[in-house]
Amino acid sequence: MNIAICEDIPQELDLLRRHIETVSQKRGIETACTFFHQGGDLLRYLEQTDSKFTMAFLDVYMPGMSGVQTAQRLKEAAPATQVVFVTSSRDFAVDAFELDALHYLVKPVTEEQVAAVFDRYKKLELPRPSIRVRVGRDAVDLELSSIQYLESRNSGTDIHTPRGVLHTTVNTSKLAEQLNDSFLKIQRGLVVNLHYVQRMTTDSCVLKNGVSVLLSRKERSQIRTAYREFVFNAADGKETL
C-alpha cells in the first residue's frame, strides 16, 4: 500500500508516519510512505512519475496550496487515491465531506485515528448495501451508493443514478423504507442521498448535479440539523456506508 503524507511541519509528519507504521505492522499490511511538504510537490511528483498512491494524508493548512485545493487537483489527477484530511480544526469538515474524503483527522493525530482510517479503507472492499427494484419487466439490483435521489413520478418513482434515470412503479415512500440513514426526505415525494448533496442553505439544498431543491417548509429545521449531523458523523467515520 503506497501512502503519501503531505505535511509542512516536520514533527507532525514524523508523528503521522510512526502511527501509520505501527498500525500497518500490527495488521500485517505492507506500506510505503512518501513525504511532501507542500501540495504542489505531491502533484508534480505524480506528473513526473508513474507512482500511484492508495491514500494521501493531506494537512489542510499548508503554505501555498491548501490541503483542500490539493485534494481537488488530486481527485482529477488520481481519482482512485483516497484522501484523508489532517488539521487542527473541524472548520473544513464540510469541505472534506463534499470531496468524498475517506476520513478527517483532528490533530494531534493518534494511533486510534489512523487505525480508523485503515478500517474505513477496508470497508471499501466489502460488498455494498443494495436493493432490488422492478424496472419494467426486469428486476434490477442497485447499490445504495449509486442512488442519487428518488423522485415521485407517474404513480411510481424515478430513481436517479450516475448512469441515468430508472422508473419503477413502486411508491417512493415504500421504496425509501429499504434505504439506510444516508437518505433523507427533503420534501414530499423527494428522497435524497446525503452523499449527493453539494451544500445546504436556509431553505434549499443544492445537489452535485447543480439541481437546487427547496426544503419542506414544515421540516426545514429538522432537515438542516439531520444534514449537519450526517456531515460531522461522516468526518468521524460513523455514517452508514
Walk me through what this model shows.
- The structure is a single chain.
- With 241 residues, this protein is an alpha/beta fold.
- It is 33% helix and 30% strand.
- The protein has helices spanning 10-27, 39-48, 67-77, 93-98, 111-123, 172-176, 220-236, and strands spanning 2-6, 32-36, 55-59, 82-87, 103-106, 130-135, 138-143, 149-153, 156-161, 164-168, 183-187, 190-193, 197-200, 204-207, 212-214.
- The chain has a five-stranded parallel beta sheet, sandwiched between helices. It has a five-stranded antiparallel beta sheet with strand order 10-9-8-12-11.
- Helix 1 (10-27) crosses helix 5.
- The protein starts with a strand and ends in a 5-residue tail after the last helix.
- The model has no long low-confidence stretch (mean pLDDT 89).
Brief write-up:
The protein is of the alpha/beta class and 241 residues long.
Assembly level = single chain
**Share of β-strand residues:** 25-35%
Give the structural class: alpha/beta
Topology, number of strands: 15
The major sheet is characterized as: 5 strands, parallel
Helix-strand string = EHEHEHEHEHEEEEEHEEEEEH
Shape call: elongated
Distance between the termini: 23 Å
Question: What does the radius of gyration come to?
Answer: 20 Å
SS summary, helix count: 7
Question: Segments where pLDDT lies below 50 for 5+ residues?
Answer: none
Portion in helices: 25-40%
In the sheet with the most strands, the strands line up as 2-1-3-4-5
**Average pLDDT score:** 89
